[in-house]
Every structure is written in structure tokens, then in C-alpha cells.
Amino acid sequence: MAELLPPLKPIPIKERLSVLYIEKGHLDVLDGAFVIVDKTGVRTHVPVGGVACLMLEPGTRVSHAACALAARVGTLLVWIGEAGVRLYSAGQPGGARADRLLYQAKLALDPALRLKVVRKMYAMRFGEEPPERRSVEQLRGIEGARVREMYKRIARKYGVEWESREYDPDKWDASDPNRCLSAATSCLYGVSEAAVLAAGYAPAVGFIHTGKPLSFVYDVADIYKFETVVPVAFRVAAGGGGKVEQQVRLACRDVFRETKLLDRIVPGIEEMLAAAGERPPEAPEDAVLPAIPNPESLGDAGHRA
């Protein structure tokens, strides 16, 4: 019967659920299905091929078969701390297309091309063109001032007391909006990394951010942050109550669907890079092409066929 089934292939990011959190269970493949098994042996089916990113919290174990199946269907596995506060590791399901990696590196290494990409990121984020004759450093300064003001404005809208963005969990209290913001941005970073990999690019090669394994992910996520997860975080913080991280996750999932984020994020990556006016390089004439042609893929450019 298994021989009659078509081979598993990734589907495009835009057709998937954004993110799914899993904690306290064993991820495995049983009877051909991707499942999480709790301590009593109860199985819960996870539609792994229809999810862009699985966030694995403490208490989760993953089998070799589960990792292999997630890679085959192009689903990103991210190991995180409790409530998504710390990122420990991530499995890479993307194909990391060589032509796209070389293209991305070329744009990041050339100061003039990098500036064009950064200017496009600024325009996409704020809905207006940045001032002319400004360096990347100057644009970062302008951006920082606008971002701080946006945080204050959204905090006032929801009646939340706000001082500044604080990233140290040890300094948070139960009602701190920073707790909600970190939970919300972890959702966005997971989806953004899945999109970067699906598009065939490297998460570490950023244009504004640098020096981190997810620098380009932060660049991409920042474009969509204030229209999606930041208002969600302040709204949940204003409402109070218990389990704010869970409230944030559910609200983020809804806002990703409402804003059609997964439909927009891969085309958005291509748009910001295309602003440099360059094209991905052609393979050298003396390069050895694949002896076995790559199979046709249903997924995005960076997915393994």
C-alpha cells in the first residue's frame, strides 16, 4: 500500500498554518503519522506538513524519524526555552540554494547594494521612502527613534505603563509588557526563519542586523513586527490575567492569519532584495551540473524537492 502513495513533498509556506507550540511529550512517527505521545501513551496527530514552524518547549523529546519527516516536508523545528524566551537550536529544512546564497552574500558585501536593500526595508516597514543621502548607520538612528515612539504610542493606546524594551527575563514581573513582547516576537521569529529558509536564503547573512545566527531573520521580522505582534502583546498585557504567554500565542496565530502574513513574507523577501537591482548569479560554465536532475517541487524555492 505504501508504494501506491505519492512521495512526500513540501507545500508552499503560504498554504500552511504559521506556528504550533509543543511541550511535555515525545514526538515520533507511528503508523506513518507524525504524533506527539504524552506520558499516558495518548497520541495526538500533528499535521506536520501543513505547519511552517514547530516550536519545541522543555519536556519535549524528538525521535530520529520525526526529525527526518519534518525535514522531508519542509517544516522548521525550533527548540526554545519555556514560553519561548530563549532559543537553543533550530533544525534547517530548507535547501539553501547556492545561487540564492551567493546572491544574498553579494548584496550584503557590497556597500552600495546593501544600502539599497536597507532603504527598501525601511520603506516597507514605515510605508514611506527614507530620507535621501543617508548612510546605513544614519538610517538605523532614524529607525530607532521611530521605533521607540511607536512603542510609546501603542502602549498609550492600550493603557499600558511603558518605560523601554527590556530583554532580560530576570527583570520582568508578571504584568510586564516585555514578557508579552518576547513571547510574541518568538512566534514571529519562528515564522520568519521558516520563510527565509523556504526562500533559499541564509538566516545569518543580514543587512541591518549582523553577528547573530538569525540576523536576516531579525531584518525580515522587523518589517512586519508593528503591524502584527507588537499590538497583540500590548493588548494581552492590558487585559492581564494568567498564562499571558498562551494568550499571546493564540492571538499571534490569529493575527498572522488575518494579515495573511504567510502569503506576503516570501514575496516580501524577494522584493527587498530585488531593490538592489541585481540578479542571482548564473552557474559558471565549467561547473559540474547535477548528474541526476532535481525532481519537480511543489514547495518554495529553498525547499528540498
Please characterize this protein's 3D structure.
The chain is of the alpha/beta class and 305 residues long. It folds into 2 domains: 2-91, Ribosomal Protein L15, Chain: K, domain 2, CATH 3.100.10; 98-274, Four Helix Bundle (Hemerythrin (Met), subunit A), CATH 1.20.120. It contains 9 helices and 8 strands. The protein has helices spanning 64-72, 98-109, 111-126, 136-157, 177-198, 215-225, 229-239, 244-258, 261-274, and strands spanning 17-22, 25-30, 33-37, 43-45, 51-56, 60-62, 76-80, 87-91. A hairpin with a 2-residue loop joins strand 2 and strand 3 (33-37). The mean pLDDT is 85.
Question: What attributes does this structure have?
Answer:
Ribosomal Protein L15, Chain: K, domain 2, Four Helix Bundle (Hemerythrin (Met), subunit A), 2 domains, four-stranded mixed beta sheet, alpha/beta, 305 residues
Largest pleated sheet:
4 strands, mixed
Query: What is the strand tally?
Result: 8
CATH superfamily label of the largest domain: CRISPR-associated endonuclease Cas1, C-terminal domain
Following the backbone from N to C, one meets helices and strands in this order, namely EEEEEEHEEHHHHHHHH
Strand order of the largest sheet: 1-5-7-8
User: Which shape, going by the Cα principal axes?
Assistant: flat
**Contiguous runs where pLDDT drops below 50 for at least 5 residues:** none
CATH fold name of the largest domain: Four Helix Bundle (Hemerythrin (Met), subunit A)
Rg for CA atoms: 20 Å
- Give me the secondary-structure category: alpha/beta
Going by CATH, the architecture of the largest domain would be Up-down Bundle
Mean pLDDT over all positions: 85
Name the beta content range: 5-15%
**CATH class call of the largest domain:** Mainly Alpha
Distance from first to last alpha carbon: 22 Å
Total count of helical runs of at least 4 residues = 9
Amount of helix:
40-55%
> What's the number of domains?
2
